[in-house]
Amino acid sequence: MGTIRDRGIIKWQAALMLPEHKALNKKKDKDDYFLNKKPTLDEYQVEDFENNIHYAMEYHLPISFRLHNEGNPIELHGYCVYIDPVTKELSIQKKDSSYEKIKFNEIISVIVED
């Protein structure tokens, strides 16, 4: 009788792989490689962020935020003018007098500038 021929890893590959699928997989892997993961924050860091924000609002001090925006950290400088407790958003008045809303869960760090 004959011997059993093992096809190795070929038996586990998909039977049909279109060129579009291959290009999409390569693009996905490339995009994910360059994105930074959001750091996990413990409850003490979040509490410290809240205290710094309230302190800056009370004394009308400039504040700097570092935000995690779709894998890319960005800096935002200005004054915190309003906190919406329902949507958990902050209204920031930037140095050029424009306003920007940020979500609290995007915040990585908060620095109060004296």
Question: How would you describe this protein?
Answer:
The chain has 2 helices and 5 strands; from the N terminus they run ααβββββ. By secondary structure, the chain is α+β, with helices and mostly antiparallel strands. It is elongated, with a radius of gyration of 24 Å.
Keywords:
114 residues, alpha+beta, 28% helix, 32% strand, elongated
Chart the SSEs and their pairings.
Layout lengths: L18 H16 L8 H16 L4 E7 L2 E13 L4 E6 L4 E5 L3 E6 L2
Antiparallel strand pairs: 1-2, 1-5, 2-3, 3-4
Question: Summary?
Answer:
With 114 residues, this protein is α+β, with helices and mostly antiparallel strands. It has helices at 19-34, 43-58, and strands spanning 63-69, 72-84, 89-94, 99-103, 107-112.
Query: Please, what is the average pLDDT?
Result: 85
- Order of secondary-structure elements: HHEEEEE
Helix content: 25-40%
Beta-strand percent range: 25-35%
In DSSP terms (H or I, runs of 4 or more residues), the helix count works out at 2
